[in-house]
Prior knowledge:
20 helices; single chain
Amino acid sequence: MDIKNIKKESKKSFRRNILRIILVSFIASVIINGGYHYSSYIYEKANNKYTNNVIDKVNNFKDSFYHMLGADVYQRGIIAPLFNNIVEADSITVGTIVTVNSMVLNNNLSTKIILYMSLVIVFLYYVFVQNIIKVGEKRYFLEQRRYKNTKVDKLLYIYQIKKTFSVASIMFKRFIYQLLWLPTIFFGVKKYYEYRMIPYILSVNPNLDSKEVFSLSKKLSESHILDMIKLDLSFIGYYILHIMTFGISSLFFFNGYRETTYAEVYINFYEEKNKVYDLSKLKDDDLYIDEYQYKNYPNTLEKRKTLEVDYRKNYDVTSYILFFFTFSIIGWFWEVLLCFAMDGNLVNRGAMAGPWLPIYGYGCVLILLCLKKLRKHPFIYFFSSMGLAGVVEYLTAWYLETFKGMRWWEYDGYFLNINGRVCLEGLLLFGLAGCAVTYLFAPIFNNIYSKISKKHRIIICVILLVLYGVDLVYSTYHPNQGNGITTTMNLKIVN
């Protein structure tokens, strides 16, 4: 394996599709939680004197930075205690364990319930979302190396071709096998690299059974385990840079560069081993080509129509109205369930009587309408979504405080909050939600709406608007409030 040539080709691939690669890497890193473990990983890899001096300087800078932020004053939310524990322990792993441990030992029954519920949800998320997106990510990077117009929705590739359960089971087996071999150390490392090609194999042919997939992965990686280890160690400088730039370098370069590199590794392995073994089940004449194509990969596989994603769509008025109510109701259910899990109270959240939280609907619709021209620029779109949603939340909170004399939410004690009305934790979620709504959920929901005749869509919209109008008038004079709605949220009367 020629590491130098592989890196050269991967950099060419990265430069050709830089913006889309950065977006895909960012979305994938958020979904599968990649790109956040390097801070602790680098301590294990960097042992020479020079590197340790660099790390000491970085730590001193980080301490000053955390002190400047006043991290000790943030105590509430999810990020704040996790952030403080990581800073105190000087380790992401240790800080995370301390945070989870404190939740487990907490005598609050509702805290334990939400923790156990979260563990179940995390498991299902890992099996049916993280691993599936991981395979979709590999598919994207294999296609984009030779096809210019590869779309972001390749992350949903396995969902689109209806292979979710079979791929999920194989990926979970991979995790179990690697976990069982881990205590042996030597064989743990060996099996980690032997199974490294499994996501790529599944992305090329998701119809294979588990026995075939594991066998093919072993064949591809045969005699190349040391080469892959050398390749990983050659990235050590980027891991150090990740720490020094607080992850910014990984976000805008290294995450994508690493993926383009391993896409080249898979191609090299296939071309080499195809001369030795029968790899006909991985054959794809459109994928293994030498010349760069300024078009889409000629995909002939059947997709689910509801998962066809086109974020450039122009939506009609009925779609925007249905978007408003869809996301308002989803937001309402989310907050009701969250309040129930945290406090054990089943209450109607929000200032209105109906099962909707308009702030979610307004935020999503405004993002879709106001930022339409920015859809081709995902990074600008992300920060614009943060800003627009933040303005909506801040002004809504100010209005409710000023004219209703109370708060329905407050972020005092959250990390980097502004007057308790908005906070960094919420703004980041708004930015991600804005991108998710625009690039994924809005097109999918619109496909669902399109199955309803125009006449019936209009009738549904009129009924919803009338109900909302009645609720709005009523709630103006009789706002929804009380225990679990305002009181338990540290109610503050504005003089």
